[in-house]
Amino acid sequence: MRTPTEDLEAVLAEAVTAYRAGGAFDSLLASLEAVASSTSAERLIAAAEPYRDVPEVAGPLYERIVAERPTDARALVVLANAYWLAGRGPEVVSDLASRAMAADPGHRGAWHLWALAEAEPRARVARWRQVVSRFPDDDLARAVLADNAASLAGSAGDEEALDLAIESYQALLARATEPAQREALQNALRVLGGWRP
Questions:
Q1: Which of 180, 175, 145, 187 is nearest to 163 (CA)?
Q2: pLDDT tens digits for 126-182?
Q3: pTM (whole model) above 0.85
Q4: Under a CB-based contact definition with an 8 Å cutoff, are residues 92 and 100 in contact?
Q5: CA angle centred on 154, ends 195 and 117, rounded to 5°
Q6: CA 178, 134, 191, 123 torsion-angle sign
């Protein structure tokens, strides 16, 4: 005999399998809404875990979870990520990420989504700079900062952005241990060095 949690997981698995086999999105959504409306946030979180990176599933389930737990930083981040993957737009993602940051200022995922959601290149570089300042050991954030600064330097001829990109890649190179990673960083630095007037 299955437990209620196993039943919930089985219902979700059946709905997702039917959708992936060519079923209509409306049918998936109806199944998810039925499950979400009759299940506590705690049970939904556990049952939704295998689908956290499937926006068609995570979005509707986490909408219900966030409605019940509006200051749960992790839930806000999962919903923001689902919206980002589904193409819901930077405004809604930025809003959810900002709410998650307010709920838990140390939640790195919230900061990443907040920076990622900024559409304007110069402002996006400024946001990634804040993330790196807050989390100085976050090499992923530093790499994204370097990439965005290099892009800004290339598209706008921005020397400050070029300096920031070079500084960021140098910091990554100082910590890199993998030969392929070191080689890629050295190549990036060579290219950027050639951009200097």
A1: 145
A2: 999 999 999 999 999 999 999 999 999 999 999 999 999 999 999 999 999 999 999
A3: yes
A4: no
A5: 145
A6: positive
